[in-house]
Fold this sequence. Notes:
two-stranded antiparallel sheet; alpha/beta; Aro_Compnd_Degr_Hydrolases; single chain; Amidohydro-rel; eight-stranded parallel sheet; globular
Amino acid sequence: MTGAGPSVPGVVDGHAHVFRSAAASPRGIDELAPAEREAPAEELLARMADAGVQAAVLVALDGADDDVADAIERHPGRFAAVAVANPAELGTAGVDPVDTARARRERLPFGALRFRWLGEPGRPVADSPALPVLRWMAAEQLPLWSYLPPEQLRLLEELVGLLPDLPVVLNHLGFCPHDMWVDEHRRPRFDDPFPEPLVQRLVRLADAPSTYVLVSGQYALSSGEPPYADLFPVTRRLAAAYGADRLLWGSDHPWPSDVPGYAALPGLVPSALPDLDERGLARVLGGTARALFPRLAGPAT
């Protein structure tokens, strides 16, 4: 396959987005995903075929599930789903969060739930209204797909101690999103994503054995061009802390799929982590994702 090499079978894209226009399927609208922008599942499948990628994890843009649910229904075995937690699941909407999550999962068989909020900063996570659904996720072994801003990181650090069996996947090398801007290629970008104190905290989170790191988003976090050598040091520190069995690759399609191009993205893993052996590379490029999302076709590596 392009980039990752032909010796890696069963590659899984661990983080991609598909969506239609807001007129065709109601969803949130912002600078990155304006009303008319589309990224249909068929486009992703075509790019996957060109790159030798077999399956993908689809992450909803927001709390609207229709586009991801439709893609999973029309392409069985090719996709797993990550839903975005709504106020109802977070326990802030006056309804039972666990009942709501269960009912939602009947409509969209999500295998993980993405969080941007875990509770009020300055208060213990044990007091969070989201704790009931987090306990349910731990019991069901549904990963928390973590995309938390800086002020939420302390709550996550508490949570992995409170619920050690809850799988947690740190999105995009674990950086905490802040001050996003959109570049000329219609991609999200972030400045100063990895201050040293943050990297140290991410490394310490590796002590929680159910915590994983998504190797993705380099295009948005780097100040250079592919293979994004300025991110090699932090990627290697995380790999040393977590090990290949707790790393997974994702494209973040569609944002980087034109520039630098989807087919170039799997190859960023061996470029950043040249010491991975064949098994380790296969694990990062598919095995970990298959272990976290059993609905994906094919054996785990």
